Amino acid sequence: MKFLCGLAMALLLAGCANVTLVNTGEQPIGEHLLVKPDNVWNEVSLISTETVKTWTIDGLPLDQLVIYSGIKDGERLNPRASGETKPVVFRANMRTDEVVHLFESLMTEMGGSMTVTKLEPTNFAGSKGFRFEYEMVRRDSEVPMRGVAYGTVHQELLYAILFMAPRRGLYPRYISRVEQLAASAQLR
Prior knowledge:
The protein is an alpha+beta fold and 188 residues long.
């Protein structure tokens, strides 16, 4: 029942938001990040900014991809959060585990509980970066979610891609798209 209420609310919000098709091929995100999706996505303008893009395939209650491009020292990761929401602020001198904890704080502020299940170094956008997997339960739906994130701090700017979807069904269906998108990321 809670899931249906959450879905109804999301559908109402979707009526207020512009949804734009993101085609395959090279897509600039902010000033310095390029990604090249090999499948179409939908951008939700209500929660996208110049440096934070929110994409989905089946709709935000079901799957969500958030791309951070060039987040500066002192800048909020949740730029459109209401006054009641605690700001989640990036600092350029953060260690990898602190950046991961920052995203964990962001997810908690958005109304859920998140557990990091794996953290490892990786190459992202042509730079030394990190990859982490997580599990999450959103308070609004109580649906077990699974997620993956890739990121790097390059020239004191944060670049990251976070994806989450229901653990059963959509996550296994879309994880290869997300991995392809992360592999295509390049800084210019």
